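Journal club prep, shared notes

We agreed each person brings one worked example of a sequence with its structure written out as tokens. Mine is Beta-xylosidase. I'm keeping it raw so we can talk through how to read the token line rather than staring at a rendered picture. Sequence first:
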Amino acid sequence: MSTTDLNPGIGADEAVFPKSAPSDPDAPHVRTARVRIDARADRGALARIWESIGYDEFNWTYTATGRKLLQTFGEMTDRGFHVRPHYVFCSGSGFGLPHWGNGNVYHEDADGNPFYDFSLVDSAYDAIVEAGHHVLVELAFTPRDLLPDHAADLTVVPSPTVYSNYEAGAWAYPPRDYERWGALVAAHAQHCLERYGAEEVRTWLWELWNEPDIFYWRGTPEEFYELYSVTARAVRSVIPDAKVGGPAVTGSGVEFLRGFLHHTREQQDPIDFVSFHTKGSAFSPWRVYGPTGGPAPQQQNPSANKMLFEVRRMLRVIAEFEEYRDLPAIVDECDAGVPAHHSAYDNANFQFQNTEYFPVFQVKLMKKLLDLNDQEQAAVQQATSWSFYFEGERYFEGTRAFLTAGGIEKPLLNAYRALARLGERRVEAVSDAAQPVALLDEALGRSMPEEIDALASRSAAGTVAVLVWRHTDDQYQRDDAEADVALQVTGLDADAYDVTHWRIDADHSNSHTAWSALGSPQTPTADQLSTIRDRQGLEQLEPARRAEPVDGELALTVSLPLPAVSLLVLEPR
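Then the structure, token by token:
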């Protein structure tokens, strides 16, 4: 693989699934489906695995835009998201370039004595906690003053954005002094404990590094395993009941994960969760040098099957260790594409990150992960969207972000609004046009074909909420015909319900469509911005109406374009 095809954040394993899904204009469509929901068939607490986000640009956390976005997520939850920013221990000026950031904590004086500066960390963590969220503390990477001597061997040509070899990747070398690293980790934990209190920091997750199975770690696996021992014990020395874990490997880091778990078992290291990542696509070439806004050289797409296969494979590695099977699996980068900061101007295949395709994909993925949990011995507790926002973008740049220029919300954010409206208990929902996760072994590397599937819930107040979608892992697929979906809801207790129907598709809950209809302006007027913002939230497809079940049963019909997701909420009157 050439360096021009190396997409950061994804492993090199293509033995089972290719790096992306091809388009197939001749693939068959699903035009009808029957979905049965039994509101009395309780499948247990609905694990809200989607309540987690992360991002590279640590320093955008505490900007006005970053704070507002965190508050927006705070409105979607009563328990808070886990928020995982990169680069807390990296040295720097406190400015976040795309795919970079720094907490600038560790320093040594002229005599070589360590001292710490938590001012940037305080700004970031304050913004997270004040919005009602909790920190997933990624303890990374090596501060400049802790680099080993051989880090100087990493040679780069300086430029206005690559100030030195440190920003170019020297931060990935193991620290030269593990004792000083442990002291840094303990000081960081102590500072957080004093600032936020024991009750808050008990909710935090403390994780070492990021993707040490690839170029984020320029040491050996054994050096990393030993660093975990030092790190976990340093955190626990300050916060005895802290939740510590790792190793946050890529979706192909199977052997690294297995070796890590062997090490923690043999050393009796503290470990409270196991983390790993998955990505649905890495487009090739990852950057196209051609006319601005030109087409992709090859139509490529995210693959839900690829992601599910990688997650299942990692869950099975965890299950090999009997003492670890019940630990939460944290997929703390769980994304349809990589890297986050590349856009539709780099490769037109990234356009899906602007459109209705992405939120429908995300809803589908969350449901399939819940289905995997039902089948495997280990289970996913969090599936983190590695998305936030970027400073300096054009409107609808196409990066993996919840906002575009001007703070306009992209359609992806509405997936989380829809998921937030689900109740506390999952109930039975079965579609005759779904692609179940049991078919993974039959996929033979292929992406998930078109399907209609559903996820349903019930609240303590008796409200039934149903997400039903039509999707295929091909952003270029279109269908002029809508699919007819018959929903049969049974097990209803009330005599009457108010039925509210929200929709995400090309024409609803879609700021990108509104912007495109105005001619895709890069200098929109105030009136145009108002028009776009009017369409950015979760929109109702039709006015709310009253429905009366017969013998506890209600028949509803939904017409779904491709792609689309509907949220139907049945609230007892």
